[in-house]
Amino acid sequence: MNKPDLSVKIGNLTLKNPVLVSSGTFGYGWEFSDFYDVGMLGGIVTKAITPLPRPGNPPPRTIETPAGLLNAIGLENCGLEAFIKEKLPFLGGLDTAVIVNVAGAGEDDYDKVVSELADNKDVDAFEINISCPNVKEGGIEFGTSPASASRLIGKLRKKTKKTIIAKLSPNVTDPSEIAIAVEDAGSDAISMVNTFRGMAIDAETGRPVLGNVTGGLSGPAIKPLALYQIYRVSLKVKTPIIGMGGITSAADAIEFVYAGAAAVSVGTANLVNPAAAKEILDGMEEYCIRKEISNIGDIIGKAH
Amino acid sequence: MNKPDLSVKIGNLTLKNPVLVSSGTFGYGWEFSDFYDVGMLGGIVTKAITPLPRPGNPPPRTIETPAGLLNAIGLENCGLEAFIKEKLPFLGGLDTAVIVNVAGAGEDDYDKVVSELADNKDVDAFEINISCPNVKEGGIEFGTSPASASRLIGKLRKKTKKTIIAKLSPNVTDPSEIAIAVEDAGSDAISMVNTFRGMAIDAETGRPVLGNVTGGLSGPAIKPLALYQIYRVSLKVKTPIIGMGGITSAADAIEFVYAGAAAVSVGTANLVNPAAAKEILDGMEEYCIRKEISNIGDIIGKAH
Amino acid sequence: MKYLKKAKLIENTVITDDCRRLKLECPEIAAEAAPGQFVQVRTWDENGPLLSRPISIAGVSNDRKHIELWVRIVGKGTKAICSAGVGDEVTLTGPLGNGFKRPEAGELIYTAGGSLGAAPLRFFAQRFCGCGDLKCVCGAATACDMSIFDDPVIKSTGAVLTTDDGTMGKKGFVTDALNELLDEKAPDRIIACGPHAMLKAVAAIAAERRIKCEVSLDTYMSCGIGACMGCAVPMSAEYGKPYAHACTDGPVFDSKMIDWEAF
Amino acid sequence: MKYLKKAKLIENTVITDDCRRLKLECPEIAAEAAPGQFVQVRTWDENGPLLSRPISIAGVSNDRKHIELWVRIVGKGTKAICSAGVGDEVTLTGPLGNGFKRPEAGELIYTAGGSLGAAPLRFFAQRFCGCGDLKCVCGAATACDMSIFDDPVIKSTGAVLTTDDGTMGKKGFVTDALNELLDEKAPDRIIACGPHAMLKAVAAIAAERRIKCEVSLDTYMSCGIGACMGCAVPMSAEYGKPYAHACTDGPVFDSKMIDWEAF
Ligand SMILES: Cc1cc2nc3c(=O)[nH]c(=O)nc-3n(C[C@H](O)[C@H](O)[C@H](O)COP(=O)(O)OP(=O)(O)OC[C@H]3O[C@@H](n4cnc5c(N)ncnc54)[C@H](O)[C@@H]3O)c2cc1C
Ligand SMILES: Cc1cc2nc3c(=O)[nH]c(=O)nc-3n(C[C@H](O)[C@H](O)[C@H](O)COP(=O)(O)OP(=O)(O)OC[C@H]3O[C@@H](n4cnc5c(N)ncnc54)[C@H](O)[C@@H]3O)c2cc1C
Ligand SMILES: Cc1cc2nc3c(=O)[nH]c(=O)nc-3n(C[C@H](O)[C@H](O)[C@H](O)COP(=O)(O)O)c2cc1C
Ligand SMILES: Cc1cc2nc3c(=O)[nH]c(=O)nc-3n(C[C@H](O)[C@H](O)[C@H](O)COP(=O)(O)O)c2cc1C
Ligand code: FES
Ligand code: FES
């Protein structure tokens, strides 16, 4: 068989393959460039960018749980200005889509980051993080109410022609409601899931382990939950879904595609094995060849 | 040190110790009696009982996931009549609290089971399952709307003087809302969490693994999520919480107590190791002795 | 009575690339085990899968102190089990489930084992050799798997050995060899264990020839002790209930009670 | 350059009940490793913990083909690592982090190692012996742990050995022995690695005596390569940023830059 066609269209952006790397788990890309050519990926999603630098939460910020990772980083990042100056040039030089994850404490923060980068040639898309469980001011609030999610996305839609991806919170009764709201408001795609709210307690001391008390759970533990949410939401929206949550192997990634994801994103697995995303991409290609799937698009949502 | 006091009051029921076993993971008790004297436990929660027998869902009904178990049993049970005749006598003969888990397709079903057992001397309490993710007709609906949860509990409250425990769904934006609603409606206690909605897909075939397509996730994978929900809800309600979700060791159980649970319940761990609940009870006692905790009540919610 | 025991691993023998024969010291289970029953096995605490794994009892030592298990590495649980070292403690729960019916005096029984499915049949032969009249067929996909049957008990039954690809023994499926035996003479009972497709085929043959047939099913199990209702097997109308449970009602079932279409 | 490699385990030696010395073949990492750097280690695929585990490089063989790790079993990850067999493949990422500053000619350096914290200091001594003037103190809680220091490199430094309980070597804490040395003569630098409480005490001593001091911190890490921002270390005002990251800015830090109160 010829090489399968793995390309995917997300809004007006064509990804050369469906393997992205998730925000907060891939630094700004260059951290992984000793291990493989990160330009081979479908896209790189940056750590959340806020207008000003954020110091992040007090440690401990991460703790391993059974098959999972709890984190409460608190959106530590260098801020918009340093991002443009120090991080973006490397990303812009790669032959891969650069997706900037945007976060903030209020609508203005999101607006500022998107407006500033709206015409930047090194940026291909925005992932709007309306679902971070680890900052108290905002983020998660947008993600749990269809009305405020819709208002935020609607506002940002007016600021840029670039692809907008809304990143949903899984910590809701029905993620489809928010998905429909952001789709109607002009989001080109949806990415899900962000982390599930969780916490760890030290049995010896009786105290919460994380400096931030609560955190967000990622990794293989949440894979069945993420698959379910994507399966369910993909029945309700027409925009493509970028699926993530515990993807560790090519088989995992393929399951997300069957569930309804047009592209997949590798998160925690990058922290475990720095070559994870490359291995998953290679494995997906092998899978398509072995199964004689000439176009990955043919199997999207086929578990339905 | 003397033996610590492990007893707990839940409504008008005193549990001799805080270790229960969860509905659907301990059969009707006798299945475990070859392994230890199950009468030593604080209480036994039965498999969900419905007025009529239910055949359950088509197989496969369970599948292991990373550190978790997905199930879609579909409330298979022998029905109220056979339960009273065949299962209850054994349970009634034990020196432990017998808690009947009640489920149904509509309010009438719950009403029927509770009314019928309201004066049965072998029954000590009812756990009202408003949170089963694996039956389409009802269950989960009560668990996701404060109004219907409140109406159902209010109705059942009138039917029995025995302790009523409302079992909440974790698949909601804010479990505190439902907790407050059922507390106001007369529930003596809250038990949480039931399973998280999830699914598994077979990467080779692209098809859902479970006969029921979707299922509920339990086991160590969900422990951080359960701890968080209990921590959060215990800030909002005064009624005792029976905490569960991935408890596998005495240390796990102690963490739930610190998070805010007055009693704990062992579920999936029983399936993995039939002596799990006994070992956890023994370990909690040892913990209290080692830490010189004379009354387990002293550490409830102390992580706050 | 069911036991939960730490059993010492006495021998761990390589049978094929991916199969091991384990000998475990567990007098309680050995004393009560019947052919067709199984044990739940765990060799890990934290660093392993969640659930224990069900494995058929392949035999019991003459002094009834040890049990034998035959295990094929197919995933992480069996991999961990097979890499246990001699002297290690293995956690066993058992004996579990209902075994094959005891043979009656003079009963003619044909056994059909596919690959490691031969394990419980081997225990049957070991226990009941002499009680009835036994003719055995054992089939494997290819020659590499034939060493599974290189076992004194199986040999003593004079079993017909087949491979699907003819690389060793008789060429063809177990069912082909079974049919040949059946053409010669109808037995009182067929008992079978092996892959799903093979059992289905054996059940069809038995139904057509109206011969009593017991199959030992391999279903996904969680608890193995009747607590979770996870191991449902769809049953035929005759059975009276839509589902049976493999771990308590089985794993051995009368093949005509099973709804093979739904299963 | 950082490498992700499968390294062959060449030796796995028991040092104490719960400590092992591992020798691994990994020329790429061995060639570039500097004292104070670490590797991320994995010996499992499915049957193990999620994250890799950070372990200091305790030395490099003369031919720069092998690295040495000293590991204490404290949980499931280190248990799996220490039970790897000779010949097994171990997944390593490294060398990671920033090591100790290279000694200048004639620089007088005191090293203080608590228990396995001696590992990176041993590599320092191995690499730089001769470059500066080294005086070493190694402390353990009790005699059972003293065999950690029974190592040719550590011996060659003439290290002062202490135990908290006096069951072997000098009685007292590492810091007591360090203070004695300091009373004799002030060095140009102290370098230390060990339990948190010990490092804090060493940092306080160095601050009081106004001696330059580097400590190698043991923080909880996820990625080890600067990707997750998980390994935050609270820093003093002087550092200019509220947090540094142990895996990229450290694990070796100038002790006066750390906000010991918040840490
Ligand atoms: C009553 C009974 C008796 C058995 N006797 C034996 C025996 O004597 N020797 C032996 O080697 N095996 C036996 N099995 C099968 C054995 O239990 C499975 O191979 C094992 O549970 C797989 O676990 P794993 O972690 O290695 O595989 P996993 O990593 O869990 O899965 C690997 C693959 O095996 C499949 N699988 C997982 N569990 C089962 C299962 N229970 N049945 C069928 N397929 C499964 C999965 O779908 C997957 O494709 C028996 C099963 C039952 C129910
Ligand atoms: C830069 C660096 C270098 C290190 N060098 C060595 C070394 O040379 N030799 C060595 O034996 N160990 C070293 N460690 C510590 C080692 O990484 C931990 O002991 C290991 O990660 C624990 O994993 P586990 O799965 O065995 O324990 P777990 O089961 O994860 O936990 C067991 C206990 O150890 C604690 N723990 C877990 N991870 C860490 C950690 N990173 N630091 C401190 N405590 C932890 C837990 O809180 C828990 O109490 C180093 C750590 C760092 C960050
Ligand atoms: C350490 C860490 C940091 C993260 N930071 C961000 C972030 O800044 N913005 C965001 O949208 N998601 C963030 N996430 C969530 C991931 O992008 C991803 O949605 C989630 O981890 C689920 O995927 P996984 O299970 O593959 O990790 C972070 C996750 C982790 C583990
Ligand atoms: C196989 C299985 C069957 C279950 N059946 C029921 C049930 O009938 N009623 C109910 O309220 N909860 C049921 N549950 C949920 C458990 O009681 C418990 O809430 C959940 O499994 C979380 O605890 P765990 O992680 O310790 O298992 C079931 C869980 C499992 C695994
Ligand atoms: S496996 Fe649990 S009931 Fe059969
Ligand atoms: S451990 Fe991930 S940034 Fe340091």
Short précis:
The complex is a heterotetramer, with two copies of chain A (304 residues) and two copies of chain C (263 residues). By secondary structure, chain A is α/β, with parallel strands linked by helices.
Essential attributes:
A: 304 residues, alpha/beta, TIM Barrel, 8-stranded parallel barrel, 4-stranded antiparallel beta sheet, 14 strands, 31% helix, C: 263 residues, 6 helices, 33% strand, globular, binds flavin-adenine dinucleotide, binds flavin mononucleotide, binds FE2/S2 (inorganic) cluster
Task: Give an overview in words.
Helices cover 31% and strands 18% of the residues of chain A. Chain A has 304 residues and is of the alpha/beta class. In chain A, a hairpin with a 2-residue loop joins strand 5 and strand 6. With 263 residues, chain C is of the alpha/beta class. Helix content of chain C is 21%, strand content 33%. Chain C contains six helices and 16 strands. In chain C, helix 5 (174-184) packs parallel to helix 6. The mean pLDDT of chain C is 93. At the A-B interface, strand 11, strand 12, helix 6 and helix 7 of A face strand 11, strand 12, helix 6 and helix 7 of B. One FE2/S2 (inorganic) cluster binds next to loops of chain C. One FE2/S2 (inorganic) cluster binds at residues 221-224, 226-231, 245, 247 of chain C.
